[in-house]
Amino acid sequence: MATPQDLVRFDKLVVASPNYIRQPTLRQLAERVQHEMLRAITTPVMSNSHHVCQSTYILNRLYETPIADASILVAITNETRPKLLLTRRASHMNSHAGEVSCAGGRYEVGDGNNVVTALREACEETALPPDKVQLLGQLPMQTSKSGMSVRPIVALIEPDLTLIPELGEISRIFWADFETLISQPTVEYQVEYRLQDHLEHTATLLTPSWQVDGETVWGLTGRVIANLLETGFDRQFEWYYRTQDSNIKINRE
Known about the structure:
There is one protein chain. This protein is an alpha+beta fold. It is built from six helices and twelve strands. It has helices at about 5, 25-40, 50-65, 115-125, 180-185, 220-235, and strands at about 70-75, 85-90, 100, 105, 135-140, 140-145, 150-155, 170-175, 185-195, 200-210, 215, 240-245. The strands form three sheets. Strands 1, 4, 5, 6 and 7 form a five-stranded mixed beta sheet that branches. Strands 9, 10, 11 and 12 form a four-stranded antiparallel beta sheet that branches. A three-stranded antiparallel beta sheet has the order 3-2-8. It starts with a helix and ends in a 10-residue tail after the last strand.
């Protein structure tokens, strides 16, 4: 039986060229995400095969980016009404229990790069086949509240896939309507936060969030989505963490 590692093949991974994306919102997202990755190139890509050269360059950049502690797959369905894939972590997990996240997880020796980590973990957690994924690019590194570096990998996936949650890690798979998310306002969310220097004390933390299909999307996942929408659609967010009884901002998730 094939394992997730067997399914993730470097020679099968492709970058979606904006020229071939019909849905306008997704095409703009691809153009913006890839533009950010191409800004460092010093030699313009010329000739009629421009999109081929650009896709190859994007793929190489993805492979060569320094390896993060973990990577997540920001997966959006390639269809007329796109949807963003989200999961709720199982309540018994040691970290982020019961919280909303993108599929993904820790780097493992043998992955080789962040793309394989994101695809392998997504396959393990949701049975998402890597060969149904087209890469768009990556977003800036994020840091989790445990101090882990996390690399978001942005991709298109085929619609109507049969995804199955791995119940040891994921309790639910659900979807955010992507075009609604682009214009949807954030809602301030209250969460109990344990103070580092006073383990017996907690504070009520206020932070932006989205409400999606009965779930609250906040924390690192919220920051990743905010960055995605800023990159692709110029939405501006003040992403803050502060205690309820003061204006002191907390510079962590």
